[in-house]
Amino acid sequence: MWAVARRPRWIALLLLALVLAAVFAFLGKWQLERSIENGKPLPSTTETRKSLDDAISPMRPVTETLAGQKVRVSGTFVGGDTTVLTGRSGGGTYQTVGHLVVSGTGASLPVVLGWSDERSAAVAGGDRLADGATVTVEGRLYPEESPDQDTYDKGEYSAVAPARFVNTWKAFDDRMYLGYVVADGTTAKAADLGTIADRAPTREVQFDWLNLFYAVEWVVFAGFAVFLWYRFVKDTWEREEEDRREAALSVDGALADRR
Questions:
Q1: What string of H, E and C letters represents the secondary structure of 122-141?
Q2: In terms of domains, do 154 and 178 share one?
Q3: Does the residue 178 lie in any domain?
Q4: How many domains does the chain have?
Q5: Residue 200's Cα: distance from chain center in Å?
Q6: Contact status, residue 225 vs residue 20, Cβ threshold 8 Å
Q7: Are 165 and 100 a contacting pair, CB within 8 Å?
Q8: Mean pLDDT of 45-66
Q9: In Å, what is the CA distance from 122 to each residue of 85, 94, 128, 138, 259?
Q10: So where does this one cross the membrane (predicted)?
Q11: N or C: which end of the chain has fewer CB within 10 A?
Q12: What is the pLDDT of residue 58?
C-alpha cells in the first residue's frame, strides 16, 4: 500500500490533507482558548473607588460590569423629592431614596440613603439631607431598575426606577444618570437612618461548553482530513491488487486452455 502512497499524486494530496488538518487544529485551539477565557472570572475593579463621572456619564446606561463599583459623588439633595421604597433587600421595611443634583454636570442621580422600619422616619431621613448644603456621598453604583420590577401595593413602590422618578421629582432638568448609588454608612448616619447591607459583587462565570464542543469538533475534522487521505490510498491499492489478481487468473486460465 505504501508504494501507492509514495506516488506524486498521493503525496500532493497528503500535503493538502495536512494543511487542512493544521487549519482545523488551529481553529480548535482558538475555540478552546475562547472557552477557557470565558470561564475566567472578571477582573475585580469594583473595589477601586472612582469619581462618578470617571465611571459613567449622564444619559448613558450603567453596564453590568460596573454593577457594584465603588464611587464618590458630590452634589445637593433636592427638598421635597424624597422617595420611600418598600419590599427591598438590604435592611428595613422602608428605604429612602434621595434626589441628588450632581455638582459640575447638574444631572440628577437617585441615591439610596438608608432604611427605617417607620415610613415617617424614612421620609425625615431624606429631608434631613435636603438642606441646600453640598454633600459628598460614597457608595456603590448599580444599573437602573425598571418600573416593571415594582411591587406596587397601596401606593408603595419597590424599584429604584429613574424612568418613574422623572414623573415624580419636582426639580428635574431632563438630564439623569441611568443608574443609582447605594450610600455607605457615613451618609446613612448623617440622615439618621440604618445602613443598607451592601457588599462587593460576586462575578459568577460559567465554563463555555459550546466553545469546547466546537474545539473538539475541529479536532475531529483535522483527524478526518488525514483519515480520508489514508482511505483513498487504501482503496486505490485494494483496487489495483484486485486488478492484478484478476489479470493473473486470466493468464493462468489462458495457459490452462493451451494445455
A1: HHHHHHHHCCCCEEEEEEEE
A2: yes
A3: yes
A4: 2
A5: 17
A6: yes
A7: no
A8: 88
A9: 9, 6, 10, 19, 121
A10: 209-230
A11: C
A12: 93
